[in-house]
Amino acid sequence: MDARDLLRSRPEGLYCPRGDFFIDPVRPVERALVTHGHADHARAGHGAVLATRETLDIMALRYGAGFAGATQEARPGEEIALAGVRVRFHPAGHVLGSAQIAVEAEGMRIVVSGDYKRSRDPTCAAFEPIPCDIFITEATFALPVFVHPPADREIGHLLASVRRFPERTHIVGAYALGKAQRLIALLREAGYEEPVYIHGALARLCAYYESAGVALGPLLPATVEGSDGAPPPGSIVVAPPSALGERWSRRFADPLLGFASGWMRIRQRARQRGVELPLIVSDHADWGELTATIGETGAAEVWITHGREEALARWCELAGIAARPLHLAGYEDEAE
After folding, report:
1. Is the CB of residue 4 less than 8 Å from the CB of residue 70?
2. Quick check: helix, strand or coil at residue 108?
3. Residue 333 has pLDDT above 60, yes or no
4. Residue ranges of the alpha helices (H) in the chain?
5. What is the pLDDT of residues 71-83, one digit of tens each?
């Protein structure tokens, strides 16, 4: 069987001709399978969407209940037949509800990883390597310079800074879906019992995570409409990265800006954003995890999407694994 009969690139995204569906399409299509709820993968306006329950819920929170003509829940590991093609959703370890999608027909299996990470995360199910013939991997941090340290070490840096500067409000930029909730959960694991103050843009997603059984501890709004009050000095505030450079962040007592992202490995990025406390906490696999995962799948061929495609393709070539960049349009380097 030719792999292109099972999956191929089209302007809308990855397309399965046999099943007549797309995976993470960047334009409205009749049938979409969605790996996770980040906006560059989960778009509104499709005729029908198949995704995990959590991803469907997150899309409804972000786009409204009518974000698609119809929806269907994919349970982890459940086989679903779509016009002679079998698909299964397996945990990707990226954010709550994130999934890899295995597409199979006539003895050939292609696994679409979506976005994934291999490090521990108390807020979502861990990545499961799935044996396959072709593995489609992201390449967000696919350069050897990217080595993500243990996240609890970075949380230790944050708490040490709070102790060192008790007169300053620590405002940490964290992506609204996944990163913010992981950061808060890690703070709780480290023994931080004080309220964490959150930007209003995080409130609904944090509430959803808690409804799904992810304990985040006491959360309070960082600002209250019609009030000039602010969290006391020494507090930790979590906000979307875009809020760090806004007037919003200047209302707090002597704010100290932090940013939780894999991109904080590049110190120039931290300086450009005015970040005093760069925290290397990533929801994507680093270079070593990407290459190890490829080996674990046993794939004879690797297709590479959104990121440092050429570097990872070269590594595959040296390892004796066929590889090709897909050059898919529409997937962004997330603010992480």
Report:
1. no
2. strand
3. no
4. 53-63, 151-164, 179-189, 203-211, 267-273, 287-297, 309-318
5. 999 999 999 999 9
Is residue 23 within 8 A of residue 10, CB to CB? The reply is no
Residue 331 lies in a domain: no
Output 88 or 251, whichever has higher pLDDT: 88
Residues listed for the chain: 336
On whether the CB atoms of residues 147 and 317 are closer than 8 A, the answer is no
- The CATH code of the domain that includes 217 is 3.40.50.10890
- 89-121 confidence digits (pLDDT tens): 999 999 999 999 999 999 999 999 999 999 999
pLDDT level of residue 228 (50, 70, 90 thresholds) = low
In a domain, 53, yes or no: yes
Pair (76, 90) in one structural domain? yes
Is residue 270 within 8 Å of 259, Cβ to Cβ? yes
- Beta strand pairing status for 68-73 and 80-82? unpaired
Whether residues 139 and 164 share a domain: the answer is: no
What pLDDT is stored for residue 335 in this prediction? 47
The boundaries of the domain holding residue 110 are 3-145+284-325
Residue type, 171: I
CATH number of the domain residue 16 falls in: 3.60.15.10
Alpha carbons 336 and 327: distance in angstroms, whole number: 21
What's the gap between Cα 25 and its chain centre? 16
Q: Of 43-57, 292-306, 320-334, where does mean pLDDT reach its minimum?
A: 320-334
Give the single-character DSSP code of 76: B
pTM, full prediction: 0.94
Among 283, 159, 173, smallest CA distance to 238 is for 173
Tokens for 230, please give them. 């602010």
In a domain, 336, yes or no: no
Q: Indicate if 189 and 245 belong to the same structural domain.
A: yes
Q: Are residues 91 and 116 in the same domain?
A: yes
Q: Do residue 123 and residue 180 come from a single domain? A: no
